[in-house]
Amino acid sequence: SGLTIRELSDALTVLEADDTIRVVVVTGSGKAFVAGADIPYMAEMTPEQARGFARDTTEIYQRMSDSNKVFIAAVNGFALGGGCEFALACDLRIASEFAKFGLPEVGLGILPGGGGTQRLTKLVGTQKAKEMILTGNPIRAEEALRIGLVCKVVNADDLLPTAYDLAKDIIKNAPLAVKYARECIQRSEGLDVLTGIEYENAIFGLCFATSD
To answer: pTM above the 0.90 mark?
Structure first.
């Protein structure tokens, strides 16, 4: 809902203001990672309101991409629709054995409006993205691992400890090197290989100006 978007925006503002926070682990409670959009709330929208809602949502995810923080999604359960898109906006995804991922929007007469058609395609390839989005069928954690949607699948009890261990592995490294490496990876999505390598060369040189 609009309220959730505002709460996420406020949380990001707080996180961005704190330079001591380098990695953010996000998880859910109960059976869902993120429940997704409020369908009755969306059903009353005009086309312009729906476009604004989608824009506000994708702006949150872009702020996550542009942030200096690394976001880890510890997906404990259902990540459907907006919940799946939120996970896709994170840098890394770890799933419990009970996790399910899906973009079922076409069954409701809409399409993924929070970057799902773009981020899923870049992550798992055109064919798998089309299968998931055009059928709306969810996939289990094991298949998510196989297609590269998540980097690990663990027992439910091990989910948060694994996420925290991953965060610690990132934090032990030089802060600016991690920031710059992440930035190069993010930029690669919109650049051809040669331009991306030129950008990487420049940022590699910049590392030699840091105390790290």
So the answer is: yes
